[in-house]
Amino acid sequence: MAATPSRRLLLEVALGNSGEKDRGASEGANRKSPRQPMADVRYTLAEPVPTLELEPDAAQVPLAETPKTPSSASPASSARSSACYGFTSGYVSTPKPSPVSTPPYRSPPTRTSSPAAVVDSNDRHNHHNHYNHHNHYNHPNHPNHPNHHNHPNHHNHHNHHNSTATHDSNSSKPRHSSSSPRPPSSSPSPSPPRSRRTRSAVSHRSQPELHAARLQRSATISASTPTKKDAPKEPKANNPKRRSLPPHASVDANPEHLGSNLTKMDDKWIIVQQKTFTKWLNTKIEPRGVRVKDLVTDLSDGILLIHLLECLSCESLGRYASRPKLRVQKFENVGIALNFVKSRGIAMINIGAEDIVDGNRKIILGLIWTLILRFTISDINAEGMTAKEGLLLWCQRKTACYDEVEVRDFSTSWNDGLAFCALLDIHRPDLIDYDALDKSDHRGNMQMAFDLAHKEIGIPALLDVEDVCDVARPDEKSLMTYIAYWFHAFSQMEKVENAGRRVEKFVNNMQGAWEMQSAYERRMAALLKQIREQIERWQQAEFEGTYIDAKRQASEFASHKRGRKRDWVAEKSDLATLLGNIKTKLGTYRLRAYEPPPELSLETMETEWANLTKSEMMRGQLINETIRDIKNALRKSFADKANDFALALNTMQLAISGLEGEVEDQLMHVQRLSSSLPPLDAYLEKIAAVDEKCREANIEENDFTTYTYDELSYELGLVKSSVQKKLAFLDNQMVARSMTNLTPIQLEEFESVFRHFDRDDSNSLSELEFSAALASLGLVFSEDEMHDYFLETSHGRDRVSFEQFIRFMVDVTEDQNTAEQVFQSFREVADGKPYVTEMDLRHSLVPDEVIEQLLNIIPVHSGPDMAEDRGMPQFDYISFMEKLISPQNNAALQDPANGRSSPTKKSNGAH
Asked: Is the pTM above the cut of 0.70?
């Protein structure tokens, strides 16, 4: 049957830098592409894509391996978590270089903003891979299934194009055409053993090294991939290996019932991908209350597709047929959805509404994958990489510190489930104990990771354990779709944590600002209160009028200036600085500036501070003025009293010195003056009190008087002495006047001696003073004799008055003309010798005529004599006196006073 070329669909999805297509490539085994893309992965949705296996020489090995270092990861999950987050570079798996030479490196083309790079219409015409747009499946298990659809506009369209090799999205190996022998399915060759990786070991690999590794890997892939013209062509109908599921086969059906013409690998790939995409779609349209059971048939009317796009874009697609019955209504609904997709910048080449309405499974899966890329994976970007590279790098970073996990791709690296457990442990160590896992229980570990992710984190269970564990090479797109949910969940968790941290930081900063504001207002209010209270106290302060009170207030004022005011100055400066810091802190976080209440503003503080300064100046002036007034008052008070006192003393002195008249009148006047002395003593005490206040006020000079307290006290003493002396003099004159047997010269001599020894001016002598006075007059007695004379003269008292002293002297010096007195006088002249010489008489001041007369009448001494008197005439006064004295008085010559010698004046010439 002649087949007309049908519309072909080519949907290319480039995960990485899309690069330019090989246009005008030369034929031959050694053809080289002029420009090699970094990772050109094309997903062709025209035929089932067989699982590709790596050639032995194309095994993936990591490039630029860093030196193996022992793992420093701690068994504790928390330590591992802190280590993994610092991982800065990932591993990129790349195949070994192909024998085919690679072109030199050229700068890669600019990456497109869209995660799904598509081929435009011109590219489509130059491309050799054309696929049948219609369902012309030769399904052996469905004999009644037509080889083509009876489309009204395409009755004669048949498959006249052979499929060519395309790149699988997750494989770096070429896919062979159906006519060429397929390589045997084998598991990828294992990577060489690696040491325990730590974050530090992985992070040594720089970004330029990764970039160079990607370029080398891209060149190797392109060089080892056969060209489209190298693949032999054959019709679809004759190609036994090109199988597909019937358009209405459900993903829930047993794979064995999907068609025996499908290989088991194809069945698994189709089922897993369709099941995963169905679950993804259901998670997106769940808010609409609808579900997809069969991805192929349930989208045919376009309603669920519109729901999906509205949920993904959060936009309304407008009016559409809510209950389409006719095929044209379904076409319109699907057209609305496809036009909206195109309006979002997602290019879809040769996808028509009939493909969706007719249930073209590959087209539908390709469309869903495009939407997944656009709305789920495209926003994953790390360090300028594509979405796939960014997602892979994220997985590598998070699992780098786990020894048993090595993520190199989105396929075989996830079979054992440890990678999922590591992602859980690094983000939610509270959910899983990675160190306690049984690393050999792959299904159990993966099932636990899936369950925890779904129940605890809310990640939809797009995959089942058997979709990953029980297959040699899990479907890359399904895994990327599911892992993208993990990425978004944990990224959102990190965003929430970061947001929470920012909120906490903001609250802490705001708390600090609030505390600073509160402290400012509290301290400012307290300072203003203290200032106002101090001003009020100064205004109400009163003085007692004393210097002590004024000085106390002055001292308090000085203490205020030295202490409290300085504290206030410092507090005022600190408050101004604090307010500036508050404004700066709020400005740093771009928050509204803080303005304190008007009553607590700096302007209010400056006003109150000005009032304080003014009150302080007035207070100081008042204190100084008060102290000056008090000092002047003290000066005047002292001067007035001192001047009056000095005037009274001068008056008394003049009165004493001007006394005249009879002794009795003078004595009476002096006695009146003496009676006025006690009031002067009391008045002087008042002057002393004022003088003490002046000393306390540090008054050293007084312009109101020339007198001082010491001068006045001294002058008062002089007046008292004058009065006492005058009284004593007048008393003595009265006594002397009664003593008629004393000459005035003797009386004056006795009075002078008495006044000299009257040291206390009491007009009396003590026993010691009495003895000294007599000795000065030449009267010398023994100690016992002096004591007897004192008691006899004082009449048994402790002092001898002037009158008693004069009477004693009169008795001693008065000439009594008795034999005893004369004999005693000769004895005193002879100094106790039994004879007297002319020289003794002359020393006693006896006149010469008297001496001559006595020498003529006194007989010469013939007894023992003194050595110094030998050679001199010696006269016996004792025999002379015996001849003159009667016999009955001769005994008296031996003891004139009954055995006690009579008191006589020594060498004074008295007889």
From this structure: no
